[in-house]
Amino acid sequence: MLNKLAAALGGNINIDLTHEYQAWQHRIPSEAAQRILQLTQKYKTNYLIELLHRVRPVPISLILAQGGIESAWGTSRFAIEGNNIFGIWTWDKNIPGMIPGRREKGKKHRVRIFPSLLDSVREFCLILNRQPAYRRFRNIRRQTDNPLDLAAGLLNYSARRWAYVRSIQQVIKKNNLQQYDNMELNNAPYIPRHVVDIQKSF
Hints:
This protein folds into two domains: 2-54, no CATH class; 60-180, Lysozyme. It has a three-stranded antiparallel sheet with strand order 1-3-2, with no helix packed on it. The radius of gyration is 20 Å and the shape is globular. The protein has helices at residues 2-8, 21-24, 30-42, 48-54, 60-70, 77-82, 117-130, 135-141, 147-150, 162-174, 193-200; strands spanning 89-90, 97-98, 110-112. It has eleven helices and three strands; from the N terminus they run H-H-H-H-H-H-E-E-E-H-H-H-H-H. With 202 residues, the protein is mainly alpha-helical.
């Protein structure tokens, strides 16, 4: 959809999608134009050139490695009780959350509760794709999709800084997680392999 708009504009991707709406909205179907406006709000940018970069996917291997580290491989309280495998915080009282056991006095943040693990993953990707703290991540991604390189853009995710980056890289390499980078995450129910085999036998 965004690429089609870029092509319709003759490659003029520096356009301000919000303030120059009348100049481009007639070049694509109205539903697509409205969807693009929604994306500018979701990804917090008015410019097509920046939006094209922000909607790009996060490698599955990076998601798996960071989710494993942040959730103690799915054993943390926040992962088990709140489907939060990335330790994502919220300060919004209207968003479900849990109070961390070691929260300092006077602090107001809570750890978010998600309806599903996939919702947690989606929010994690959105954070990387739009928050100023991860501009370095997005800049690296303009040059490469290699998760080992992209990990360097996650310095601000942890107080451990470069030690954290190295941990992510090590987890990816040790577990050969890059083999999953051509796959997609979805919310389809998990069916054990032996059940699949039994179903195929009928």
